[in-house]
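Translate structure to sequence.
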């Protein structure tokens, strides 16, 4: 395995050449792909091994750590003890059945946990950090985990450094190393060797895994990867962060605890009533009562819910990923569904980001640039539809494009599908335009670049310093017209440089605004020749000080068409009660026009400009943010203020971003959204959601998915809690009203129970599980995008849902008990002559059927059971399986012994189905009343 051997000390103390030599790499070419593969095989992946995952055995054991399961284990022990005390003559049926149910339950829990883990792992793989490396002379993006010692990594602003490396190129490079050294100020980087004794924080010629590039560019040779990096050295300090439970998970566990306490009360009442009223005498009776009490507890507490929740959230997140929305933590799946404002960038998110220069404004007139586009690299400048004649206009238009191609970081690369320009889309537009006109592109090669001041969203411009063949030095500058025109003192016209008078300036600004109002993105181009007396620019220093006294050459109009699907997505968002807010660095006029075209804001609406924002205090900003739809010419810092203002107005904010400076705003937002393609690694790190396709429509799709998932969770909560309530009430009323219902009279035994402990466990842990899982995959029954966003404090289980749960639980228990009564002699419904075992089996079956039917009821709080009845085949499958299992438990002899059932006749089955169907009639009536009330409320509101 090849690593830095350190013969001459650590890499920071050695020359780059020595480091490259020792690591066997030519820094101009990088490693060969095959060599990189071989080194990766030898060194292992470049990953930190923090904690090994628990082995399956331990995870299985963990399933038994649930208090309720422990409760059941105690029940098994009691049952065994009683069986032993009674002479151990027969088979200990109860103990075996309960034990089997515990095992099945643990296995189910484990399967769900593993499934959730797989889904999460697949998601994590999708948002893996990436690095740019030089291999075989070409730049390639690889997963950071595939970096090896000797790789040449190429670093740029916003990158997360993938491994430790020795720098051999650094242009204005700064890294923020707080994650490693705790030092919050950015560290300036350089390439010269340092003394061996230099401390970690001062090793300015090294970059370290896990740190972030704040600005500039650079290249480094990887010296260490994985656990051998400096970060690896402190990895044990970074113990794996357990994902905090989501608000919903917390609500469910709170609910579990509350139900646990309530049920202990009910269980005590049942136990005491049974012991006193039914005169239980034998130890077997006491054990049966105790077991029933325990199963009552198991029935009432939704112990399977936490596992079910994580599966549904994780599987939902996986479904979102298929639609290009990669969620980085489970709670965001929930938060997404409750978002109330989406703040979005314009360029590349609402628009395609495919920029084409189509117009050039100069001091002597306007020319249109037409051409075959990216595929056909020929074009020409037209004036009033005719090819531009030689003269100042043609000259200045070409000069403007040439400057744009010089102050430029894009480049042509040969890809699989031919030659194409790569880089920032504005830069690409200039490069392509220069090549369409041929001449500017040829002229570019006459200039040698000697310095640059990169584009940033704050500066809104980019400049480069070049020397021509005659040795003269020039500054070339392109940027936002409002910024650049202010830095110009002259304007070019053909061969002359004229003074930029106030009148001329005002006229020009007017023309730029008119162009922007048509939706064009505008950029100005300017230059200055540096006199010999000017200090020679440092090779790669900042040329900011040269950005003054410039000569304006022209302004270009760039088209960047809206993405076709965005208009529809915005309509959908508005229907769903979401406000869409555009926050862009672009010109206010351009922003307003695009916003109007897309339906974000009415035409004629005003944009809040960055300058205005700066003048507002927090209270004023809150006021403005309550209605503003478009912010323009904003700096990244403004985004953070806007998020905070919206949040303090009670909004749940989703916010997009791509640049490294957007990271704080993304962190502060409820849902930070990073661009998967154009976003930097640091921004992705700060985000909760990554858009694989950078597309606004994907955000709306993710919100829809988030709402569907939340709805599905409510569906199975409604289902499981209703069914549990039904079981608890059946036992409670069955015990309390045993005499009235004819249950006690039916048997000569001292103890008669309405349901057996094993039967309760059967419903709860066997027949209920399938439908609950299936409901987690339910499609959208009520159109989730036609309601307002869920409030921040809204509970998953609200008053209306409790009402539905109680009414269904009551119906289930009453129908189950009446079914028993129907077949027993005496009681409220006379005429029965069956044994208690048969009647109890009928009651038990009614309860199971009612629960299975409740699964269909639970799919909507208001819509009829018929709406989308056949949409979920998993649900039908699981319900049919439940019916099959129930038939088996009634007829298969072994199961009859295990669950105390007796065979039923056709009349019994008919009664069971008929009685169970009441849950549907009752729920349908309740929903119809609710729907009518809702209509009345909404017409009343409309009348007002
Ligand atoms: P959004 O914020 O919606 O992505 P944007 O791309 O216009 O919009 P910024 O990237 O902050 O926002 O750019 C702000 C302004 O800076 C642009 O309107 C443009 O005038 C100018 N600009 C953009 N890219 C460049 C570039 N590569 N070189 C020079 N100037 C640029």
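Result:
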């Amino acid at each position: 395995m090849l690593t830095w051997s350190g013969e001459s000390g650590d890499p920071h103390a050695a020359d780059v050449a020595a480091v490259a030599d020792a690591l066997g790499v030519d820094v101009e070419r990088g490693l060969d792909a095959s060599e990189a593969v071989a080194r990766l095989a030898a060194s292992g992946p470049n990953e930190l091994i923090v904690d090994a995952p628990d082995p399956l055995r331990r995870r299985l054991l963990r399933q038994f750590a649930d208090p309720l399961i422990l409760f059941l284990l105690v029940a098994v022990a009691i049952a065994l003890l009683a069986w032993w005390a009674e002479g151990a003559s027969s088979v200990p049926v109860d103990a075996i059945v309960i034990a089997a149910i515990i095992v099945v339950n643990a296995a189910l829990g484990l399967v769900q946990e593993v499934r959730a883990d797989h889904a999460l792992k697949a998601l994590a793989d999708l948002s893996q950090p990436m690095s740019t490396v030089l291999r075989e002379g070409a730049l390639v993006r690889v997963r950071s985990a595939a970096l090896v010692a000797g790789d040449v990594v190429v670093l740029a602003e916003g990158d997360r450094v993938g491994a430790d490396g020795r720098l051999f190129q650094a242009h204005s490079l700064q890294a923020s190393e707080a994650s490693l050294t705790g030092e919050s100020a950015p560290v300036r980087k350089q390439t010269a060797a340092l003394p061996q004794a230099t401390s970690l924080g001062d090793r300015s010629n090294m970059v370290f895994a896990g740190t972030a590039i704040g600005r500039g560019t650079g290249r480094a040779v990887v010296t260490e990867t994985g656990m051998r990096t400096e970060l690896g050295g402190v990895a044990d300090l970074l113990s794996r962060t357990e994902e905090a439970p989501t608000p919903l998970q917390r609500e469910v566990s709170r609910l579990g605890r509350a139900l646990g306490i309530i049920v202990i009360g009910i269980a005590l009442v049942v136990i005491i009533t049974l012991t006193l009223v039914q005169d239980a005498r034998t130890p077997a009776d006491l054990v049966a009562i105790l077991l029933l009490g325990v199963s009552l507890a198991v029935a009432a507490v939704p112990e399977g819910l936490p596992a079910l929740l994580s599966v549904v959230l994780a599987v939902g997140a996986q479904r979102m990923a298929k639609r290009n929305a990669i969620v980085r933590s489970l709670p965001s799946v929930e938060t997404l569904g409750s978002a109330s404002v989406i703040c979005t960038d314009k360029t590349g998110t609402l628009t395609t980001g495919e920029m084409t220069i189509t117009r050039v404004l100069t001091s002597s007139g306007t020319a249109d640039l037409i051409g075959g586009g990216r595929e056909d690299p020929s074009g020409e400048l037209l004036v009033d539809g005719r090819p531009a004649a030689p003269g100042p206009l043609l000259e200045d238009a070409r000069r403007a494009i040439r400057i744009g191609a010089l102050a430029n970081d894009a480049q042509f690369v040969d890809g699989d599908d031919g030659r194409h320009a790569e880089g920032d889309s504005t830069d690409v537009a200039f490069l392509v335009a220069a090549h369409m006109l041929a001449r500017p592109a040829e002229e570019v090669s006459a200039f040698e670049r000697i310095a640059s001041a990169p584009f940033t969203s704050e500066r809104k411009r980019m400049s480069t310093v070049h020397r021509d063949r005659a040795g003269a030095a020039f500054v070339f500058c392109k940027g936002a017209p409002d910024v650049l025109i202010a830095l110009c003192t002259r304007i070019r016209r053909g061969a002359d440089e004229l003074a930029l008078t106030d009148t001329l300036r005002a006229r020009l600004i007017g023309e730029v605004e008119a162009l922007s109002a048509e939706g064009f993105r505008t950029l100005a181009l300017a230059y200055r020749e540096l006199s010999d007396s000017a200090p020679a620019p440092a090779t790669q220093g900042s040329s900011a000080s040269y950005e003054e006294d410039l000569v304006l050459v022209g302004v270009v109009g760039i088209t960047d068409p809206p993405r076709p699907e965005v208009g529809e997505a915005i309509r959908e968002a508005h229907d769903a009660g979401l406000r869409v807010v555009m926050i862009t660095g672009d010109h206010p006029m351009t922003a307003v026009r695009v916003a109007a075209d897309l339906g974000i804001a009415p035409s004629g609406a005003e944009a809040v400009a960055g300058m205005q924002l700066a003048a507002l205090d927090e209270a004023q900003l809150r006021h403005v943010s309550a209605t503003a739809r478009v912010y323009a010419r904003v700096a990244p810092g403004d985004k953070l203020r806007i998020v905070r203002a919206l949040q303090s107005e009670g909004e749940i904010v989703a916010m997009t971003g791509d640049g490294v400076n957007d990271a704080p705003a993304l962190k502060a937002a409820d849902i930070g959204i990073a661009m998967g393609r154009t976003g930097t690694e640091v921004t992705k790190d700060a985000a909760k959601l990554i858009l694989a396709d950078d597309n606004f429509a994907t955000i709306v799709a993710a919100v829809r998915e988030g709402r569907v998932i939340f709805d599905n969770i409510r569906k199975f909560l409604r289902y499981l809690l209703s069914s549990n309530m039904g079981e608890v009430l059946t036992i409670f009323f069955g015990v309390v009203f045993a005499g009235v219902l004819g249950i006690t009279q039916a048997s000569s035994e001292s103890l008669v129970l309405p349901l057996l402990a094993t039967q309760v466990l059967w419903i709860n842990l066997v027949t209920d599980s399938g439908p609950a899982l299936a409901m987690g995959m339910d499609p959208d029954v009520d159109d989730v995008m036609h309601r307002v966003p869920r409030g921040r404090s809204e509970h998953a289980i609200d008053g209306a849902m409790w009402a539905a749960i109680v009414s269904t639980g009551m119906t289930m228990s009453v129908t189950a008990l009446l079914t028993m009564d129907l077949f027993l002699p005496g009681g409220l419904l006379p005429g029965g002559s069956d044994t208690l075992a048969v009647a109890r089996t009928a009651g038990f079956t009614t309860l199971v059927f009612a629960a299975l039917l409740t699964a269909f009821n639970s799919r909507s709080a208001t819509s009829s059971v018929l709406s989308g009845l056949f949409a979920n085949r998993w649900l039908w499958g699981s319900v049919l399986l439940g019916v099959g299992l129930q038939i088996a438990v009634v007829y298969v002899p072994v199961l009859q012994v295990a669950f105390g059932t007796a065979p039923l006749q056709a009349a019994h089955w008919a009664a069971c189905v008929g009685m169970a169907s009441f849950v549907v009639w009752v729920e349908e009536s309740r929903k119809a009343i609710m729907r009518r009330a809702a209509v009345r409320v909404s017409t009343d509101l409309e009348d007002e």
